[in-house]
Automatic annotation (TrEMBL):
GO terms for cellular component: membrane. Belongs to the TMEM104 family. It is a multi-pass membrane protein. Residues 18-63, 213-452 form the Amino acid transporter transmembrane domain. It comes from Callithrix jacchus. It is found in: Membrane. This is Transmembrane protein 104. It holds the Pfam family Aa_trans. Keywords: Glycoprotein, Membrane, Transmembrane, Transmembrane helix.
């Protein structure tokens, strides 16, 4: 009885981590995207993209199980060969087993399972997406996989590098931030105030100058971590998650209180298709978890109802996104919603307590700063893997200077040129996010099913096979990804032409 409870607890913890992974920075840019595209269009697109993300999540889980089966069967074969080498003669049945594996016969699998061995498709080894790509893709496919991952991580770092200085600029450039005066005219951002980057911040310094100063400080403080190996500690993860949920809960409660007191300023449109492009990218980015599934799913002890629990996770995430976004768009006017939603609560007429204003205003600074070095090291390691040659090593300068430099410099340059977080999130999600969330899982599951059938035969069933097992779903996901790519590109071109 105790063992079963432990397994259930571990499964719940794994799903909590998945919830925390998905609900991140993208959620803070979602309210403005909702207000721009209209509440009905936003709701429909959010639900549909959540469903599509769930489909591809089940694809990745199926591919993980298939990869585990291949690794487990190879280990069994290697162990059998070692036993045969120790014996003086090999029996005909032993030879037949090896031949059957090479010829993709199914009988040895079934006979092994009848002897009580663990299910071949049990997910026990953590097989990362890069390893799965190496197992199921050609060399060209592997290179395209790493290219997509690298572009996505660059977008992630650019968003982080812009969000922290932007939040600091918004908070510290408010009138009265450095003074001891009180009153609504001396603190916070007034409801009708519109600031430009050229407006004054402190003395002769403009707001954009303050942003660049903060960006330089951010780069100098966190950039050096790119040149070393860092680990995300358990306590840091717990602290970050706790701060995130306190911030989200406070924002939702404050928005509901204002709406309940009749102070809601928002009158969002039903639909505005001009804002769908950014909304699409933000939603895709906000549902991103496929690249981290091996680390989340593998430690879960009891996986019997894994698909149902993942589905429940997505339902809860959808409900949370809907609650956060709808309270935001009815609480604040659409043109007053900030790219980073927490900054809307830096106004004195919204939050009277200064400590709460500064906590929410500076919340992205704390949480994003802890993630930036980890993402940077991940990107650096992906660069190394992409150019790695079997048996070769990199010179010290290339390993310790070149790779960290090409990791750090591009996102900082992007952040220097723009702090438009909604566009950064939208473009990252619409392009690299589409590849990671749709294209890669679809090709992974297609090739893993083909390889599984060739290696084990038609009679062996993957216990973690996706509910969307028909080939139609693979084609539908790829068609949807291609359509989204064309739509977003056309929308960008048309928008630039009009400008």
């Amino acid at each position: 009885m105790a063992g079963r409870e432990t397994e259930t607890d571990r499964g719940d913890v794994g799903l909590v981590y998945m919830f925390n992974l998905i609900v991140g920075t993208g959620a803070l840019t979602m309210p403005k995207a909702f207000a721009t595209a209209g509440w009905l269009v936003s709701l429909i697109l959010l639900v549909f993209l959540g469903f599509m993300s769930f489909v591809t999540t089940t694809f990745v889980i199926e591919a993980m199980a298939a990869a585990n089966a291949q690794l487990r069967w190879k280990r069994m074969e290697n162990h059998k060969e070692e036993e045969d080498d120790d014996s003086s003669t090999a029996s005909d049945s032993d030879v037949l087993i090896r031949d059957n594996y090479e010829r993709a016969e199914k009988r040895p699998i079934l006979s092994v399972q009848r002897r009580g061995s663990p299910n071949l498709f049990e997910i026990t080894d953590r097989v990362e997406m890069g390893q799965m790509a190496s197992m199921f893709f050609s060399k060209v496919g592997v290179n395209l996989f790493y290219f997509c991952i690298i572009v996505y991580l660059y977008g992630d770092l650019a968003i982080y590098a812009a969000a922290v200085p932007f939040s600091l600029m918004q908070v510290t450039c408010q009138r009265g931030f450095l003074s001891h005066t009180t009153g609504n005219d001396s603190c916070g951002v007034e409801a009708d105030t519109k600031y430009n980057d050229t407006d004054r911040c402190w003395g002769p310094l403009r707001r954009v100058d303050a942003y660049h100063i903060y960006l330089a400080i951010f780069t100098l403080l966190l950039g050096p971590f790119t040149f070393f190996d860092v680990q995300k500690t358990k306590y840091l993860q717990i602290l970050t998650s706790l701060m995130r949920w306190i911030a989200f809960a406070v924002m939702i409660v404050l928005a509901l209180v204002r709406i309940g007191h009749g102070q809601g300023e928002g009158h969002p449109p039903l639909a505005d298709f001009s804002g769908v492009r950014n909304l699409f990218g933000v939603c895709v980015y906000s549902f991103m978890c496929q690249h981290s599934l091996p680390s989340l799913v593998t430690p879960v002890s009891s996986k019997r109802h894994l698909t149902r629990l993942v589905f429940l996770d997505y339902v809860l995430i959808l409900a949370f996104y809907g609650l956060l976004s709808f309270t935001a768009i009815f609480c604040f006017r659409g043109d007053s919603l900030m790219d980073m939603y927490t900054l809307n609560f830096a106004r004195c007429d919204v939050v009277g307590l200064a400590a709460v204003r500064f906590f929410l205003g500076l919340f992205p600074v704390f949480t994003i700063s802890t993630n930036f070095p980890i993402i940077a090291v991940t990107l650096r390691n992906n660069w190394k893997t992409l150019f790695h040659r079997e048996g070769g090593t990199y010179p010290w300068v290339v390993d310790r200077v070149v790779f960290p430099t090409i990791t750090l410099v591009p996102p900082v340059l992007v952040a220097f040129c723009t702090h438009d977080l909604e566009s950064l999130v939208g473009i990252t999600g619409a392009y690299a996010g589409t590849g990671i969330q749709y294209v890669i899982p679809a090709f992974l599951v297609y090739h893993c099913r083909r390889d599984t059938q060739l290696a084990f035969g038609c009679g062996v069933s993957n216990k973690h096979r996706s509910p969307f097992r028909h080939t139609f779903w693979v084609g539908f996901v790829l068609l949807w990804a291609f359509s989204c790519f064309i739509f977003v590109t056309a929308n960008i071109v048309l928008s630039e032409t009009q400008l």
